[in-house]
Design a protein that fits this description.
heterodimer, A: 111 residues, mainly beta, 5-stranded mixed β-sheet, 49% strand, B: 116 residues, 7-stranded mixed β-sheet, 4-stranded antiparallel β-sheet, globular
């Protein structure tokens, strides 16, 4: 299982863009990169998933360089409600393959 | 989207009793479900992989006789904390992934267990 490294915490202000980079130097060929968001006392919620280059959905963008040894989650124009812990996971996308959580990044959005 | 329902959301029990937590995939079938526990301000720690129709696979350091897992159907897995002690107090979370390719994990909303 590829190990991931993220910053422990980040502070931002409302309306700013937040970029969180995750390092995964040992990523395997078949591994996908998935980001989750977790609020206190709730289960994690899926944000975005990608394999290479760039993926964008209605809430975030995911940038993956050609070597895939890192990825960057971009949250545009954050609001106070985006304060949460963000986890980067790397693993094979098959039903039975377990995913292990790293430490996550605690993002605090200030008014 | 895929929904995973976890019940109860919180439970308080006395030391020595057992507690059962249910995890259901509401609109998809899950041959595999995962159980995690999370202590305050810490990340999720994988406890075990629950396989429908077979024995669960436990992570190193997790006592299989204390944390009983049953996955009797494609939509239901249960975790029973047996003879609970105060140190078992934690946030327990289940997750599941549909069998379709590239499907991400979907998580339940967790169960806050407090053992007094």
């Amino acid at each position: 299982l590829a190990k991931t490294t993220q910053p422990i915490s980040m502070d931002s202000y409302e309306g700013q863009e937040v970029n969180i980079t995750c390092s995964h130097n040992n990523i395997a060929t078949n591994d996908y990169i998935t980001w989750y968001q977790q609020f206190p006392s709730q289960g994690p919620r899926f944000i975005i998933q990608g394999y290479k280059t760039k993926v964008t959905n209605e809430v975030a963008s995911l940038f993956i360089p050609a070597d895939r040894k890192s990825s960057t989650l971009s949250l545009p124009r954050v609001s106070l409600s985006d304060t949460a812990v963000y986890y980067c996971l790397v693993g094979k996308e098959a039903a039975g393959n377990k995913l292990t959580f790293g430490g996550g990044t605690r993002v605090l959005v200030k008014p | 989207g895929a929904v995973v329902s976890q019940h109860p959301s919180r439970v308080i029990c006395k030391s020595g009793t057992s507690v059962k937590i249910e995890c259901r995939s509401l609109d998809f079938q899950a041959t595999t479900m995962f159980w995690y526990r999370q202590f305050p301000k810490q990340s999720l720690m994988l406890m075990a992989t629950s396989n429908e129709g077979s024995k669960a696979t436990y992570e190193q350091g997790v006592e299989k006789d204390k944390f009983l897992i049953n996955h009797a159907s494609l939509t239901l897995s249960t975790l029973t904390v047996t003879s609970a002690h105060p140190e078992d107090s934690s946030f327990y979370i289940c997750s599941a992934r549909s069998d379709s390719h590239n499907s991400p994990l979907h998580f339940g909303n967790g169960t806050r267990l407090t053992v007094t």
